[in-house]
Write a structure and sequence with these properties.
Length: 254
């Protein structure tokens, strides 16, 4: 990607009578790029906001670690990163239409991560994809790779684990908002010879990746939430005290 000064220099050479081929050789850019600058000289949205906390000589954590912890949970649950043209990557996170508050929260978290880049919505049956293009998504989410997440190893980098350890509830909330839910179960018990209906809430988290399930349960352990795993892809939180903790820090989708 080329900065605005390079683009202006190329156009200035063209106005002096140099051919596109000559300008291309002088400043080391493609003729296709030069032709596109004749139509639009300003960098596109994903060119802006070049500053990346993970790039450069002194990598640092993201500037808003709590928002990043939430976004990491959303990405691990329902997000993907795809390579597009010219080294740009597109982040997409699926959010169900049934939860407009979740869509807003996801847009806000993505915008905080890349404040100078445009965040958009792409409609699909039953959901909205929150999207944003940037060269730096693989820097912020090193879990990016070919294929589905449950078909490859998923581990957190040391700096990511430090953020999750500091902001565990935001991470749990992101995972629940993506691949989890709060439901109310009921059962019939015989008390004094009579049938009585009892209702009790519980949280479920469902994911095909054993690694992501492990990240979720390890974080639950950190905040002293009791859980059980009824099958290979589900984690249940049903103990009353643990559900109360989840209600206080996560709550149902909205």
């Amino acid at each position: 990607m080329y900065d605005l000064e390079t683009r202006k220099r190329a156009l200035a050479l063209l106005t002096q009578g140099f051919s596109q081929n000559s300008v291309s050789k002088q400043i080391g850019v493609s003729r296709a790029a030069i032709r596109s600058w004749l139509v639009r000289i300003e960098p596109l949205a994903y060119d802006r906001g070049r500053d990346c906390p993970r790039c450069g000589d002194t990598p640092r954590p993201p500037d808003a670690p709590a928002a990043y912890s939430y976004l990491l949970g959303l990405y691990l649950g329902d997000g993907c990163i795809s390579a597009t043209k010219r080294g740009v990557y597109s982040l997409r996170i699926a959010c169900a239409d049934a939860w407009p508050g979740l869509i807003d929260a996801c847009v806000e978290a993505v915008q905080i991560a890349r404040p100078a880049n445009k965040v958009g919505l792409v409609s699909s049956p039953g959901c909205q994809y929150v999207t944003c293009s940037s060269k730096h998504w693989p820097c912020l989410f090193p879990q990016h790779g070919p294929g589905k997440k449950h078909d490859r190893r998923i581990t957190l980098a040391a700096w990511q684990q430090d953020i999750v350890d500091t902001h565990p509830w935001e991470f749990i909330r992101g995972l629940i908002h993506s691949d989890g839910c709060r439901i109310t179960n009921w059962t019939i018990r015989i008390v004094g010879g009579e049938q009585r209906r009892y209702e009790y809430p519980r949280y479920f988290f469902t994911n095909l990746s054993a690694d992501i399930l492990g990240l979720y349960t390890n974080t639950l352990d950190q905040v002293q939430v009791e859980w059980r795993q009824p099958n290979a892809k589900n984690i249940s939180v049903a103990r009353r005290a643990s559900v109360a903790l989840m209600d206080a820090h996560v709550g149902p989708k909205y």
